[in-house]
Amino acid sequence: MARFTHALSTSAAWLLGLLWILPLLYAFWAATHPAEYATRFDLFAPLTGEHFVTAWNQAPFMRYMLNTVIITGLILTFQLILCTLAGYALARMPFRGRGLVFALVLLQLMVMPEILIVENYRTLSMIDLIDTHIGVGLPYMASAFGIFLLRQTFKTVPQELEDAARLEGCSRLGVLWKVYVPLAKPTYLAYGLVSISHHWNNFLWPLVVTNTESSRPLTVGMAIFGAPESGVDWPVICAGTLIAIGPLLAIFLLFQRRFVQSFMYAGLK
Amino acid sequence: MKRLSWLHAWLMLLPALAMLMAFTHIPALTTIWHSLFYPARGSEPEEFAGLDNYRMMLDDDVFWQALSNNLWYALVTVPASMVLALAMALWVNGKIRGRGALRLAYFTPTMLPMIAVANIWLFFYSPEIGLFNKVLGWFGVAGINWLGDTDWALPSLMLMTIWKEAGFFMIFYLAALQALDRDIYDAAALEGASRWYRFRRLTLPLLMPTTLFVLVNAVLNAFKLVDHLFILTKGGPNNASNLLLYYIYENAFSFFDANYAATLTVVLLAMLILLALLQFGVLERRIHYR
Amino acid sequence: MLDKGKLHKGKRLLAIAVTSLAATAAQAQTELTMYYPVSVGGPLTQVVDGMIEQFEQQNPDIDVNAIYAGNYNDARMKALAALKSGEPAQLSVMFSIDVHELKDLDAIVSFDDVVETDEERQWLDSFYPALMENGKVDGTTWGIPFQRSTIVMYYNKDMFREVGLDPEHPPKNWDELAAMGQKLVKKDADGNVERWGAMIPSTGYPYWMFGALAKQNGADLMNSAGNETYFNKPEMVEALQYWKDLGSKYNVMPEGTIEWGTLRQNFLEGKTAMMWHSTGNLTAVKNAADFDFGVAFLPAHKNFGSPTGGGNFYLFKDATPDERRAALKLVRFMTSPEQAALWSKDTGYMGVSPAAYETDILKQYVSEFPPAAVARDQLEYATAELSTHQSGRVRKLLDDAIQSVLNGQAEPQEALDSAQNQAKRILSRY
């Protein structure tokens, strides 16, 4: 009986896994076979690379990719700096109004920038940052999630370590840099991966604020590229998708183990 | 030295706070302000509207439909993706064949941009040539017009959302499971506790913090994840799958009525803040009995 | 002694000085920024780029910078945003139906205000009248047709032969469409439909398809001032009833809505014998169809009819007189018969003027590929596409009404009444 339930559970796991990876499998199938096989499956269908060539020529993928990397990098850099400073202040520096400030920070967990696209668009056009990398990044640079996470992590650092460093003449920022940041490495990694996977795939806000290929990230490029004005061309879209997710896929495969481990240590659980 | 400490604290908080103010708190307030005006016509200044936009909203069937769709959407996708995420995490945490491959499979949605993968789902859902109806056909079941039928459009979107979310949340559960203390389990096993009992009395309670974290995120995503609508249904047919944020986008950027969009945003804000209060209440209680 | 680095620096400075001198020499350089509603890198961009290159060669004093902004909605949003933020934009191809809203925003200038000579005034009259309907308001021209299409019926001749229908006689009217459609439907042993008779897409642009049915029934959706709609006229109700009946009564079409984006694929895979679609799809269908297909007028009821669609050239107000003249020059170049002919041949969009079809390029193309002429001939029965003030909102009202009827949520009369009432309320301000 136990054996039976075990087998049942295993096959359920596999069935679910198959379902979950199906879109990716289909993307591989459609992208690597001639167009007439896009909706038909035949083991002996010939292979082709033409869709990758078409996709590559139809959209400035390098440019989009570069934009995505710049935007994601910009956001992550600022997030790490701003959240570290704020997280430390909230974790270890008593001052009046700390509770209120923390509450204000936490509010952004709920009121995410996505909700405020209309007003943020107004703001950006006022300061003339529409269609710039920095404009795409600005609303995300201070992240409540990051501040919260780092505050929690910093709180677990023994106060004695800080006191010892201070006795040796370390400045506050020195302590932060030499004691806290190294100890919070797993948190940084976990947070970094969440942030990257979020901003790499973010769509609505970049759609609103970018106008041209000089700032448009992959997702917006993909949406325009696949926009079914005259009809969907699946093989080419699939090839484009694969080109777009290639780097992310590689990162995940490389870091898979570290990823889960860092989540574990970061207390993201 | 000690006296300067508060100054240091504020200096360190300043950059983050300034950004949060500029892109969260202030816009949240100006949203309310802008909802009180008529849209500008040409180069004329905006005209004060009082509560007219809100009156218009109460009369707007599409708003009510989008609101109720959104609530159903949250009500279905949140628990479904959480349960699946937990199940997946339990599977790939245990001894199962092909664990690495399974992990990768479960994790794919997190890597695929919603907007690109929506085109692939469009193929799955396509009634005559799509995969799902083909599979139904093998079992002799007549096809469904997934995205073109008012009864099926929203569930179809939900399915894709669950797919997207469960894989992401699985990571959090997996990390939590790996951090659990094996000794307790060994002890429980020695005492002859059944698997189900161990799961219910040990695993679930120990995973409570993760569950709360995931819950918060899942609820939020139910209100902010609308990327796939752009490709799959555009909120149709006849608004059967319209969601609040998408309707806000439509108003602001297709109908060019930023003021009505602001009015709708106020409702969304109010809902989220209400949810926040609710959840902080729950969090508070959890902290107490810890 | 100068070291190498300094020398290089000196050279560079010199080079900069020389180039800036050269630039001042070519003083008269006018820079134009044009927004264009296609996605970057798509096949259309290459055609447009080619045209611009040729234009720049002929007009060395004008520099054109084309910005490919995505679909119509994106292009409009981007162009208006650019104008608002003070970035240059002198002209754009935008949805032909945006004219009232662009006027309301005070963003565009009429072509009548920019033309100077009699020859230029004549040029304004050189296009097909049906294509000018959406560009003219109260006799003034605001939009010049360029990327224009209309709806035609694609049909699979092999399937017509298979069921014993004459492949050269596609359905001429509503009754024939229903009758022939029924013949063309094929079911498998379980009674599930394997192939439909016809498909009219009802996502994306349902109001556009409905405009065709309405016109065939002898009625227009709105007035040319764009401040009145006629959604619930008896002709409209009848037209919508017929559309619904194709699915629920004659069973030649699936019930519920039919996806615009995947319809071409359905047709190419033989899942439907006929489809109504934009002429913009002609080249794509031609390249991919592995069967004998034909293109025909949409069937008539009281008369033939189809709305036109697509994009017009607009000139933005925010430009210097020189820039406006240069922009006009560019528009004239791109809509000249030769360019229009090339454009039509390369893309499947229509040649916008009778003269374009008189060029050797299109004459030859039409004789080699007769379907290309169908859209042109149908123009005689064509009408404007739905275009009003606040068109996005008004359009959505009609779209929703259509989709609710096709999904069996409402009867045509009540759905259209409600759409009409709401549209009336919105338009009462204009």
From TrEMBL, chain A:
Its main location: membrane. Residues 65-255 form the ABC transmembrane type-1 domain. It is a multi-pass membrane protein. GO terms for biological process: transmembrane transport. One of its GO terms (cellular component) is plasma membrane. Keywords: Cell membrane, Membrane, Transmembrane, Transmembrane helix, Transport. Pfam families: BPD_transp_1 (PF00528). The chain crosses the membrane at residues 12-31, 64-88, 100-118, 130-150, 234-255. It is found in: Cell membrane. This is Carbohydrate ABC transporter membrane protein 2 (CUT1 family).
TrEMBL record, chain B:
CDD domains: TM_PBP2. The chain crosses the membrane at residues 71-92, 104-124, 162-181, 202-223, 260-283. GO terms for biological process: transmembrane transport. Keywords: Cell membrane, Membrane, Transmembrane, Transmembrane helix, Transport. The keyword Transferase does not apply. The keyword Lipid biosynthesis does not apply. PROSITE patterns: ABC_TM1. It comes from the Bacteria. It is a multi-pass membrane protein. It is found in: Cell membrane. Residues 67-279 form the ABC transmembrane type-1 domain. GO terms for cellular component: plasma membrane. Its main location: membrane. PANTHER family: ABC TRANSPORTER PERMEASE PROTEIN (PTHR30193), INNER MEMBRANE ABC TRANSPORTER PERMEASE PROTEIN YCJO (PTHR30193:SF37). Belongs to the binding-protein-dependent transport system permease family. This is Carbohydrate ABC transporter membrane protein 1 (CUT1 family). It comes from Marinobacterium mangrovicola.
Automatic annotation (TrEMBL), chain C:
One of its GO terms (cellular component) is periplasmic space. It comes from the Bacteria. Residues 1-28 form the signal peptide. Its main location: periplasm. It is found in: Periplasm. InterPro entries: Bact_solute-bd_prot1, SBP. Pfam families: SBP_bac_8. Keywords: Signal. Belongs to the bacterial solute-binding protein 1 family. This is Carbohydrate ABC transporter substrate-binding protein (CUT1 family).
